[in-house]
Specification:
The complex is a heterodimer of chains A (about 100) and B (about 325). Chain A is mainly alpha-helical and about 100 residues long. Helices cover about 55% and strands about 0% of the residues of chain A. Chain A is built from four helices and no strands. In chain A, helix 1 crosses helix 4. Chain A is globular. With about 325 residues, chain B is an alpha/beta fold. Chain B is about 40% helix and about 15% strand. In chain B, the strands form three sheets. A five-stranded parallel beta sheet of chain B has the order 1-12-11-2-3, with helices on both faces. Chain B has a five-stranded mixed beta sheet with strand order 7-4-6-5-10. In chain B, strand 8 and strand 9 form a beta hairpin. Chain B is globular and about 55 Å long. Classes of the chains: A mainly alpha (about 100), B alpha/beta (about 325). Chains A and B meet through helix 2 and helix 3 of A and loops of B.
């Protein structure tokens, strides 16, 4: 279980912003926390999967994808800000994510 | 290291003297309205020419196709013809632009475009193969009780367990990535599997809305019928090898390629392993020869040093 520092928050935000800017062929300056991943960026679940894999490798996370899937059913994500929040929770709680309730 | 096309620094194929290219061909393409091949030199002329041939020889209704109008994306057979016409046109132009694939692969029913591009079959034969394959499958399973779906976020073992534990007449028909699958089977069972997968924690599930269980043993009889009906169609040695999605063998002889189109109908495919084999064989540049980026999206989970391009993001030709 990791402690989420301001540095990790900034890093996760930067990774998410740059990831969607590249994948969705848009300028990073056009992305905000309020940007809708599907309607504004034409994002999809494969991008989400790829992003999770990036974070799993970067932070050496022990978490099954289906744990994230079950969490996402209860806590759907539609904006970049919500996605960053979820990624921080994943980094913090890993496979115990479902035990945590917002 | 994987490199997306956006951080590619190449300017032309000639700037990649060590590039080993692969053309990859989609099965059921979508996204014609903003299709990525429109800026290829001569694309519209060549496409219209091939479309006219197809309309004259195989299906007159194809002449109603328009990039901003009728695209037949919900017509299971016509969309295969159009994907084939589009993909083969694009690949032909790329070859004129000095792209030289060392390996090619056709995703699912994209195999016909791969074989045409590799010089194993004629353009007309490709259309005929698509028609006969569809009719053979349709005749062997005349009832509309089948479907396919995609499941993202579970492992293959998870899906196998769900299928086994619930006695579902469904199977994995394509492995796109370690956690991305296509499934085929009886419609009710496919839908049940999608529901179970979502409850199990899949990130995404979708009924593909097709009426045949492609790449499943349910089509064994149809594939035998197909094999019998295509005996008269000539296959030539491929100018460049084609990678099998069934067992990832590298195919080049007429016999092997003929056998491949038959078993492609009823055997499960593995797109992930196919790409891995291409990378292991030195491919470092994939080009999706279709109107959109469906294969590129599915192709980001292979380890290796390679670049992906769509027709809309190619390095400029000289």
């Amino acid at each position: 279980m990791a402690t989420i520092t301001e540095s990790i928050k900034a890093e996760v935000k930067e990774i998410v912003y740059n990831f969607f800017a590249e994948e969705c062929e848009t300028d990073v300056s056009r992305i905000t926390n309020e940007t809708n991943i599907i309607s504004d960026l034409d994002g999809d679940s494969l991008m989400f999967l790829e992003l999770i894999e990036i974070f799993k490798k970067k932070y050496h996370l022990d978490i099954e994808l289906k744990t994230i899937g079950k969490y996402a059913v209860k806590h759907p994500v539609s904006t970049i800000g919500q996605l960053i929040e979820m990624q921080l929770l994943i980094i913090e709680h890993e496979n115990r994510l479902l035990e945590f309730e917002r | 290291m994987k490199t997306g096309f956006l951080n590619s620094s190449v300017n032309s194929p000639d700037c990649l003297p060590d590039s080993r290219q692969s053309f990859i061909f989609a099965a059921f393409a979508q996204g014609y309205r903003n299709h990525s091949g429109e800026n290829l030199p001569g694309f519209n002329r060549d496409f219209q020419s091939r479309l006219a041939i197809a309309a004259a020889t195989i299906d007159p209704v194809l002449s109603h196709f328009g990039f901003s109008g009728e695209t037949f994306e919900n017509d299971e057979l016509r969309t295969q013809y159009l994907t084939y016409i589009y993909s083969s046109t694009a690949a032909g132009i790329l070859r004129k632009l000095k792209f030289r694939p060392v390996l090619t692969a056709g995703y699912s029913m994209g195999i016909y475009a791969a074989l045409f591009d590799a010089g194993s079959i004629t353009f007309a034969s490709g259309l005929e193969l698509i028609q006969i394959a569809y009719q053979s499958m349709r005749d062997s399973l005349p009832h509309d009780h089948f479907s396919m779906g995609t499941i993202i976020g579970l492992s293959g073992n998870d899906l196998t367990d769900l299928i086994g534990n619930h006695n579902l007449e469904a199977s994995i028909s394509n492995r796109n990535a370690s956690h991305s699958f296509v499934v085929s089977g009886y419609r009710g069972d496919v839908r049940k599997l999608l529901e179970l997968a979502a409850a199990e924690g899949a990130l995404h599930t979708r009924d593909l809305g097709v009426s045949l269980p492609y790449h499943s043993r349910l089509l064994e009889q149809g594939s035998l019928d197909f094999a019998r009906k295509i005996r008269a169609i000539g296959f030539q040695p491929a100018a460049n090898p084609v990678v099998s999605l069934v067992d990832q063998k590298i195919l080049q002889t007429p016999e092997a390629l003929r056998n491949e189109v038959v078993r492609n109908l009823c055997c499960p495919l593995n797109w992930l392993n196919t790409q891995e084999v291409m990378v292991q064989n030195g491919v470092n540049m994939f080009v999706e020869c279709g109107p959109s980026n469906g294969l590129v999206k599915n192709s980001k989970f292979v380890e290796g040093n390679y670049r992906f391009y769509t027709l809309g993001n190619l390095p400029p030709a000289e």
